[in-house]
Design goal:
This is 2-aminoadipate transaminase. In the C-terminal section; belongs to the class-I pyridoxal-phosphate-dependent aminotransferase family. Belongs to the class-I pyridoxal-phosphate-dependent aminotransferase family. By secondary structure, the chain is α/β, with parallel strands linked by helices. The protein has three domains: 80 residues, Arc Repressor Mutant, subunit A; 124 residues, Aspartate Aminotransferase, domain 1; 243 residues, Type I PLP-dependent aspartate aminotransferase-like (Major domain) (Aspartate Aminotransferase, domain 2). The chain is globular, with a radius of gyration of 28 Å.
């Protein structure tokens, strides 16, 4: 709705507003039941006093053109004779959108990812919920220099299109990165994605049919569970221990269920923080090759190791092309850049490219160039050393404060990654604990989201230590302690 004000006119401002809205109503540019801006909104848009808009609206109401109702706002009520006849003869029905969603969309999946993404610096809630890197550790000076260099030398190409599978120069840098992870590939085996979540989505949409069985570690990343279930797959959990996925149970389920894929997070697993042992990795690959079952290896945290020996990825042990490997820069550089990659056989990359071109055509060109230069100019390795050091300190701080304040708590001490997986006593009402925690200004993710059957009763919660500042870790755990005490008091 465009209204032009002439401030040097002899016609009063409210009359100008009223006349233009009236003309739009008579010409049917503003149809019956059209909701007008509120008085405050229109006054701000037109840079006039609210009383001026209020007077214009009162004039329009007196002429029977608009009306106002609490909860509905101000709306057009004028309709001509033809509209009255049509309205009386043909009572129009509202479109019920819920009735036309496809079958998978009708499922009301938990919006935990959306809630995590709403984290704001202005929010007084301390969040242990998200798998988000510390904003304080973003290498802003390095990226500032990278951006300046690109503007000087490659400005003409930074905003052009990119190949669907990704910028070839960035793929060359990722090829070097993979070689450091003991994986030798060509650029034809690499696809650039908008984070590893998009990579997982592309793989699932390319391979997974309704009723296919997907075996996952239990518990595992809730985003993967929801994605597979959205496509109609049957997600079956395989228990894990301190060495990783239970291969004996896995082999039994492979024989019984004939799965389409196995999904695994071997390094600093989400949510438990467990790292699959070298022996268990070899055992898993032996089962994979014995039965011909492909693996999706999700490795967003592999670079973030604080202690212990480096272990080869499943992809590094893969000699016959059974592993599709996913990784991302979102966890180590910036969540907002949304640049990740897939490593797979060339024919698989080609097929994934056909699917990707139907979604976003390609990852944003500027982001690809910036990551490429960040790698090429040698900033990446120093940045990894920095975040390992800082996150190691944060992990230790959270562990120390948990040990001081939660004598009844059990938790696994991860060698890397983002999370602590904490077990509470059996007598805790977890619904009440979450309610108390949110009220007290601290949040986390309860265990049930990490199971295929999210109604499972579990005594665990996942705490992230990378995103909150040190003082927030201390304060947040005090709030969690208070919430636990209130829960125990109320239930006893």
């Amino acid at each position: 709705m465009r209204i032009n004000i002439k401030r040097d006119s002899k016609i009063a401002l409210y009359i100008q507003i009223k006349n233009q809205i009236r003309d739009m109503i008579y010409s049917k540019r503003l149809p019956l039941n059209y909701v007008l801006p509120s008085e405050r909104e229109l006054a701000k848009i037109l840079d006039v006093n609210r009383s001026t808009v209020k007077k214009a609206y009162e004039e329009l109401k007196s002429e029977g053109l608009i009306n106002s109702e609490v909860g509905r706002g101000t709306y057009v009520v004028f309709c001509d004779e033809d509209e009255l006849i049509t309205k009386s003869n043909n009572c129009k029905k509202h479109l019920f959108w819920d009735e036309i969603y496809n079958e998978s969309s009708k499922n009301n999946y938990a919006d935990v990812m959306s809630r995590i993404m709403k984290i704001s610096d202005n929010d007084k809630t301390i969040s242990f919920a998200g798998g988000i890197p510390s904003p304080d550790l973003f290498p802003k000076d390095e990226f500032g220099k990278v951006q300046m260099d690109l503007c000087k030398s490659k400005l003409e190409i930074m905003f052009l299109h990119s190949p669907v599978s990704g910028n070839n120069e960035l793929k060359k840098e990722i090829k070097k990165l993979m070689l450091n992870r003991e994986v030798r590939v060509s650029t034809n085996n690499i696809m650039i994605t908008s984070g590893s979540q998009q990579g997982l989505d592309l793989i699932a949409r390319t391979f997974v049919n309704c009723n296919d069985v997907i075996l996952v570690e239990e518990p595992t990343f809730f985003g993967a569970i929801q994605l597979f279930q959205t496509l109609g797959a049957k997600v079956v959990g395989v228990p894990i221990d301190e060495d990783g996925i239970r291969v004996d149970v896995l082999e039994y389920l492979v024989n019984r269920l004939k799965p389409k894929f196995i999904y695994s997070i071997p390094n600093f697993q989400n949510p438990t923080g467990i790292t699959m042992s070298l022996k268990r990795r070899y055992e898993l690959m032996k089962v994979v090759e014995k039965y011909g079952i492909p693996i999706i290896e999700d490795d967003p945290y592999g670079e973030i190791r604080y202690e212990g020996e480096e272990l080869p990825s499943l992809k590094a042990l893969d000699k016959n092309g059974y592993v599709i490997y996913l990784s991302t820069f979102s966890k180590v550089i910036s969540f907002g850049l949304r640049v990740g990659w897939i490593v797979a056989p060339e024919r698989v990359i080609n097929k994934l490219s056909l699917v990707k071109q139907l979604t976003d055509l390609h990852v944003n060109t500027l982001g690809q160039h910036m990551i490429c230069e960040f790698l090429r100019q040698g900033y990446y390795e120093n940045h990894i050393k920095k975040i390992r050091k800082e996150y190691h300190l944060k992990r230790n701080l959270m562990i120390k404060k948990l040990e001081e304040n939660f004598k009844e708590l059990e938790f696994y001490r991860p060698q890397g990654g983002f999370y602590l997986w904490c077990k509470f006593p059996d007598n805790i009402d977890f619904n009440l604990l979450l309610e108390k925690s949110m009220k007290n200004g601290v949040n986390y993710i309860p265990a049930n989201f990490f199971y295929a059957n999210n109604e499972v009763e579990s005594k665990f919660i996942r705490l992230n230590f990378t995103y909150p500042a040190n003082e927030e870790i201390i304060t947040g755990l005090k709030r969690l302690r208070n919430s636990l005490d209130e829960t125990i008091k109320e239930t006893n």
